[in-house]
Amino acid sequence: MAFSSEAYVAKEPGGPITLETIQYDGVGKNELVVETVAFSMCASDLKAAQGVFHLKPPIILGHESAGIVRQAGSAVSHLRPGDQIVLSYSHCRKCRYCLQGEAPYCENITALNFSGRRSDGSVAAHDALGRPMNHSFFGQSSMGRVALVHESCAHKVECTLEELKKFAALGCGIQTGLGAILNVCKPPPLSSIAIFGAGTVGIAAALAARLTFPSRVVVIDTASNKLSMIPEGVATSTLSSAGLQEGEIADKLKAMTEGRGFDYVVDCVGLAQLVNAGHQALAPRGMVVTIGGPPETASISLAAQLLGGRTYRGSHQGDSVPSTSIPMMIDLWRKGHFPFDKLLSFYRFNELEKAILDLKAGKIFKPVFVINDN
């Protein structure tokens, strides 16, 4: 049965994000109708609205959300109406990467997350004038009161309604930061870890780094106000890189380790200058991991790679498989070991513009929008 919902959309690249009524077709066999409890927003939503991401306007935004299943398609067997769920990215669960536990590298990742269509290529969403909208952003397009999502996005959780509002933020950025440390770097105790970017992803990586008993965790950013907002006990130190060239950044980082260099550098920004600086600041056998937008052209020394045994690699979603990473993050949070909720700021459903202004002003890390918070 067809349904409608208010949702946040971007109609043209660089235009405003507006709240519109969207008409949805009935639920497909591998889809869910989800009543949204809360959703969060990250840089990928803003990039998509600007027309500089994989999926472009006209688009229904949203890819970090939590809610309650209201209807399940005929082929959905693991979820039923009434289940509480956290949403993450979509994957096919059939290709060799999905079957060997590497869902972020699903062979169908683009079609399922960035095609703007259902998996069969059909259009499921139209605006009030009947014009087709790009939907299924990360398989969900969940910045609305009700969302039509691919079943692979949904992960059942047992929690209170207040907890579910917090868990809405776990499906992408926080998961990526944690995964970069625990899945990709896998640092042994007493490792030194540098993190470029003091946004949500970077601070989530720093929170995860503290779980590994590091010798130091340094967060680097050009914005001093963002560095000052980092919760106490997350980083052992910070570095403002404002006005510094890549060589100067590398020198300052190496000086923090008595010239030895860092064992791990996590790049949450995706700028070539930072990749280069991080690589120059590596200790022998060290690793740079990029989890932000892809760098333009990084100039990495092959000699340093060879003679120092150094590594540079990228990572999608921090190599995280949501069916395991989401319950792990929740368990760590409940035990007091991963206080991601310190990064959250809550807004009403209609306060998107205010949240965007707060983000751009560097006042908050992660906005979470609660649907029925009067």
From TrEMBL:
GO cellular component, one term: cytosol
Coiled coil: none
Keyword annotations from UniProtKB, A to Z: Metal-binding, NAD, Oxidoreductase, Zinc
Domain Alcohol dehydrogenase-like C-terminal per the UniProt entry, residue ranges: 201-330
A Gene Ontology molecular function term of the record: S-(hydroxymethyl)glutathione dehydrogenase [NAD(P)+] activity
SUPFAM superfamilies referenced in this protein's UniProt entry, alphabetically: GroES-like, NAD(P)-binding Rossmann-fold domains
InterPro entries membership: ADH-like_C, ADH-like_N, ADH_Zn_CS, GroES-like_sf, NAD(P)-bd_dom_sf
Segments forming domain Alcohol dehydrogenase-like N-terminal: 28-124
Cofactors: Zn(2+)
Entry's Gene Ontology BP terms: formaldehyde catabolic process
Domain of life: Eukaryota
PANTHER family xrefs: ALCOHOL DEHYDROGENASE, ALCOHOL DEHYDROGENASE CLASS-3
Entry similarity comment: Belongs to the zinc-containing alcohol dehydrogenase family.
Name by which UniProt lists this protein: GroES-like protein
